[in-house]
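Residues pack. One example:


***
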Amino acid sequence: MEPTTHTSEDLIIGTVTGTNLDAAFGFHHAHLGEFMLPLAPTAFRRIVEKDQMLAVERHGEIAGLCYVKPDGKELDTVPRWEFGGLHLSPALRGRGLGTLLSTVAIASVTHSDRKPVMGYVHQDNSAGMGLLVHRLGFAVTDRTIRLGPDDAPGHLRRDSAGFATANVLRLPDAATARLADRLEHLVDGSRGSSPPVRLRLRDVLFPAGLHEAVRRLRT
């Protein structure tokens, strides 16, 4: 039965594991759209094996995904994290859970390895820009990347020449403090939304505890 506005809903955020890898990959491919670059099975598995793919679980099923992996775009020689692949099932949208999942995913890697974080958003994807820029604090740079007609065929909106262009975003240091603030609010495990949510984070995300992760992010 779907929860009503008076019923608290339990959600779990954790890393995708070998146990639910197939379900997570199926969710990923089922929700690819005109703006999302598909991951090959080998690439998906590699991210999972390194605990860099996070999921929201609802009623024991995958209901949302995103990843923070080493950046492979090679814009220069600076090592970075790449944030991407965010998607929520329709039942979870409009409740701030995309921002929350993104915050946990980014914090789970950056609190112990403070490499810069980059994001890549299709130039026509205004929804993605809103989430990353206005809610998470990413800043638009003067760089773009282009994918040709042979890259990810059947996906991504393209121009008349068959090219897809994405804006390159970076997460400024000042935005990391905002991540820490959001993470700190999760200490009590609750979130006010409609319907209300009881949220649990799997221990593997922050082995030393949320308070320690927040401290490191602010250092």
In short: The chain has one domain: 9-218. Confidence is low (pLDDT under 50) at residues 1-6.
